[in-house]
Amino acid sequence: MATDRYSEELTKLGEHIRKLRKERKLTQLDLEVRSGIDNGDISRIENGQKNIEFHSIVKLAIALDVELHQFFPKK
User: Fold this and answer.
1) What is the pTM of this model?
2) Thinking of the domain 2-68, which architecture would CATH place it in?
3) Per-residue pLDDT reduced to its tens digit, 7-16
4) Which comes out higher in pLDDT, residue 22 or 1?
5) Which ranges of the chain does DSSP label H, i.e. alpha helix?
6) How far apart are CA 27 and CA 4, in angstroms?
7) Count of CB atoms within 10 A of residue 6's CB?
8) Residue 48 DSSP symbol
9) What do you get for the CA distance between the two ends of the chain, in Å?
10) Crossing angle of helices 39-46/28-35, nearest 10°?
11) CA-CA distance, 34 to 38, in Å (whole number)?
12) For the chain, which residues make up each domain, given as ranges?
């Protein structure tokens, strides 16, 4: 079902964002300061519980110092 796939993809994206954050030894609060995105929202994004808008992906990429394509690794 499309809804299941949507949830799976949000979860994968969130897990990858968490991985990138932890690789940089950043807390969610650190990422909030760098990105301007509320740490509660960051938590929900990382847990696949919040839809993430494109402008937020851009903010996170800048805050994590990565290229946008790094949020979408090849399988």
Assistant:
1) 0.89
2) Orthogonal Bundle (1.10)
3) 999 999 999 9
4) 22
5) 2-23, 28-35, 39-46, 54-64
6) 29
7) 12
8) T
9) 21
10) 120
11) 10
12) 2-68
